[in-house]
Design brief:
Length: about 250
């Protein structure tokens, strides 16, 4: 297996990010927000609604350059090294599932063998379907396939399981873990679902209400296959003891 991101962590050090509202009022979204995600670690940014999680991801994805501070993305400058999965699957409607995935690939990888990836995500029979033929759950799986196919050094996920029924969301979390375990990639996922964060992460980065800064870390050192319902209850209890009222 290829080393992913060559040992370099994702480093974030944002001094300040402000927005100006339509009425000209300044809103400080992020203030002294600093953290690292180690190579191959799956981290969740967990914080109350409106605290600045999506703003952070937008900055890290280069979609918002208007902030004070800096960050370092492993593998930056080395081709297509980040991938993102958003709440909206953002698939091209006139392309099939497979075409959507292949179009995201750098030219040299366009003919890559994607059989295993599609199989792991339960999409083997859906490759020729168009987005309009997919349920939201299937469209989210296609978006996951597109992100993992590029073999990124860092993967950003912004609440990829919201607005799904719980059963579908749970199936997708397991599929995400299967595909991530096949190639553990430095990942940063935004969520305000504590249970989801405890199931998926190596480390939870707990954020304050706006302006977001790091309140503390919660490390989940157990292998994921050991996180059974009883263990999850214990983890929830310890989290609430450490961060009372955090979410
Ligand atoms: N383009 C914008 N203009 C003005 N204010 C903005 C803009 N984008 C975000 N904000 C404000 O910045 C703050 C942080 O927003 P952000 O979407 O990052 O929060 P969040 O933690 O992702 O919220 P949620 O969990 O509800 O998705 C909010 O108060 C929001 O209203």
């Amino acid at each position: 297996m290829q080393p992913v991101g060559a040992g370099v962590p994702l480093r974030v050090d944002i001094a300040e990010k402000t927005f100006k509202s339509a009425e000209g009022v300044q809103v400080t979204a992020l203030k002294e927000l600093a953290f690292e995600v180690r190579q191959g670690e799956f981290a969740c940014l967990l914080g109350p609604s409106g605290c600045g999680k999506t703003t952070t991801l937008r900055i890290l994805l280069g979609l918002d350059r208007d902030f004070r501070g800096s960050f370092q993305i492993p593998g930056a400058g080395d081709g297509n090294r980040t991938a993102a999965v958003f709440q909206e699957p953002t698939l091209l409607p006139w392309r099939t599932v497979e075409q959507n995935v292949r179009l995201a690939l750098p030219k040299a990888m366009r003919d890559a063998d994607l059989d295993r990836l599609f199989k792991t995500l339960g999409l083997a029979d859906m490759r020729t379907l168009f987005p309009s033929e997919l349920s939201l759950g299937l469209a989210r799986r296609a978006a996951l396939a597109r992100a993992f196919a590029t073999e990124p050094a860092v993967l950003f996920l912004d609440e990829p399981f919201v607005s799904l029924d719980e059963q579908t969301a749970e199936r997708l979390r397991h599929l995400l873990l299967s595909v991530w375990s096949a190639r553990p990639t430095t990942a940063l996922m935004v969520t305000h679902n504590l249970r989801e964060a405890l199931m998926l992460s190596d480390r939870i980065i707990v954020l304050s209400p706006r302006p977001a800064h790091v309140v503390g870390y919660f490390d989940v050192r157990l292998p994921r296959h050991n996180r059974n319902p009883q263990v999850m209850e214990d983890l929830l209890r310890s989290f609430h003891q450490k961060f009372p009222g955090a979410v």
